[in-house]
Prior knowledge:
There is one protein chain. The chain is α+β, with helices and mostly antiparallel strands. The chain has two domains: about 40-65 and about 235-290; about 90-220, Immunoglobulin-like, CATH 2.60.40.1120. It contains seven helices and nine strands; from the N terminus they run H-H-H-E-E-E-E-E-E-E-E-H-E-H-H-H. Helix 1 packs antiparallel against helix 7 and helix 6 runs antiparallel to helix 7.
Amino acid sequence: MDGDEVAPEPVEVPLSSIPEEEPVFASTGATLILPSQMPRDPRMHVALLFILLASILGTVNGYDFIEGDGGLVTDRGFIYSQTQTANLLSTSAPGSAILTGVLTLHDDTPGVNFTIEVVTPVIDEDGIQRITRPSATTDSQGRFRLEGLNPGLMSMYVVNMSNPSEGMTHRILLSPGALFEPYGFTHLNLDFAAPEEFDLIEQKSNGLTRWMDLSEEQRGKELYDPTAAAVYDIAGTIFIGISVIAIFFGITGWRTKSTLLLRTGAGLVFFSQGHYYSSCCLGLLAMLTTFGLHVEEM
């Protein structure tokens, strides 16, 4: 038909006639560095040093807590400090201390029919302080129990009722109630001196007394219940554990160039300090040093 246009037939082009493009390679000058190959920030050395020093002091602090009769604060000092804050931190109040114990003679037999007396100051309704002397008598097993005492430092008298002029004076520390406990319990194991020791005292006093006063000798070495310091010992163990963990995080963070691990170690070691306040500052400095580093793994 004359009016119709005829579509051109497609022309097949052989693939061999298409020119191939040559690949072009160009260097950008960038170098790929693995995290382990990156240089360590010099401030990491400083942070690790602070962590190690604070951890060492934290360990010493823990041993100070565990060592009951040595260090900056002793078990007696810890118990006494509790008695001073008893009304604030617990429901303990004057008259809330209970004393129990066992009296043993020089030959390891029970001290039977001995009087145990504790001098206790009491504030009456008019605000006037008066002295009471609650007492108890030991039973056939040498046991005794006194109630209505005050937490804190007290004087205790042990009287031989077979010879009332013969006895001993002790300086004791009565425990307050723990936290919300209304009563504080103190248990003492007492030893009564041998007759020969009282004979010597009588000779030195020209027969005036057979009384042994240990109150001055026991100043700072008061008789106390060792179990009352158990919380103190537990705290010391926790401080040592925190210090060891902080050292692990600090060294691991330094070796792996990890800011987060270093910061974790610095945060832990801050809480390993008790009354070593200078080491608290070291832990704080270690923490502040890590904030100058990058947060991502280095």
